[in-house]
């Protein structure tokens, strides 16, 4: 087997119009628009519209879409009551996956109607922040904060989370974070969503599968691991010895390196500036520590292995969220709050792509490396004549 292609690495599986990565030049494109241009000039609601509809909205289209998102923010009270029955120390991603799937029990799903799929996408984009914020309040024994229709998508989530309306600078920083995480081509969670959608399962199931894929530490859980690393390091003076010890033990430095980018991740460049701005504003050391982690890891990788390595999106997003006073274990759910825009755009594309060939059920081939007992297979022996111990296979 060609090890370069393990995990479908570098294997094209479908056409897409949603987004594109130029790993050599460090470019991320949403529907033809450079992510850096969008973070300077757009906002998350407009970016959602772009991802879903392939074009930036007109003024009237934007107002209508924004109002639809606002109207869809509330979730039924029974869902919040059900959250109260969960263990308060349950993983927020397990909670989110369960309640995204549960939305199907409250909202009809039209399997074949494209327009209805846009409505479901709007529902998911609007409701996932409410689910996450409700859980944060419930697990801490605090009253739920209902959505505020006067606030933007970014500001409303921070308000529902803390009960306090953010200042304009904080709102803008979080809005940029949402834009940066909204899509990233066929990453693990997006592929999971498209794979489930390819079976003609409904959108809530596909997004629930994506949330499950996102929860892993090698995907969406990475920024949580980055913040744990920074808290363990504690001070800038400890960075060099900490990094060297980890590398001596051949352990991974979270937030460094990317499967696709061969240069600086453009999202990391933006987040680095946001982290610096927040650190200067509130007087905390997390930007300086993170920047030192970047510098030492780059130097050590060059010396030890002769390779260049760069930060990915997780390295600086961790400190940004931490300085926004967001609980660390909500880092990955916040990733989902943003990425649901991309997931739903890909699901709609998977189900209703107009270009040939028509999307088909994903069915990759595996190479069997298990045991063979002969041309006819292994001989089945009844339980009472089998030996007491069998040699176990090594996996």
Keywords:
395 residues; mainly alpha; Citrate Synthase, domain 1; 16 helices
Plain-language structure description:
Helix 6 packs parallel to helix 7. The chain has two domains: 234 residues, Citrate Synthase, domain 1, CATH 1.10.580; 99 residues, Orthogonal Bundle (Cytochrome p450-Terp, domain 2). A three-stranded antiparallel β-sheet has the order 1-2-3. The two termini are 17 Å apart. Helices cover 53% and strands 3% of the residues. The protein is globular. A hairpin with a 4-residue loop joins strand 1 and strand 2. With 395 residues, the chain is mainly α. The mean pLDDT is 91. The protein is built from 16 helices and three strands.
Summary of the model, kept short:
This protein is mostly helical. The chain has helices spanning 35-41, 44-53, 59-71, 77-83, 92-102, 114-139, 153-162, 168-180, 188-197, 203-214, 222-233, 239-248, 266-282, 286-305, 313-323, 331-352; strands spanning 19-22, 27-30, 33-34.
The fraction of residues assigned to DSSP E strands is under 5%
* Rg, alpha carbons: 23 Å
CATH class categorisation of the largest domain: Mainly Alpha
Structural class: mainly alpha
- CATH fourth-tier homologous superfamily of the largest domain: Citrate Synthase, domain 1
Helix content: 40-55%
- Biggest sheet details: 3 strands, antiparallel
> CATH topology of the largest domain, anyone?
Citrate Synthase, domain 1
User: How far is it from the N-terminal to the C-terminal residue, by CA?
Assistant: 17 Å
What is the overall shape?
A: globular
Order of helices and strands: EEEHHHHHHHHHHHHHHHH
Give the strand order of the largest sheet, numbering strands 1, 2, ... along the chain: 1-2-3
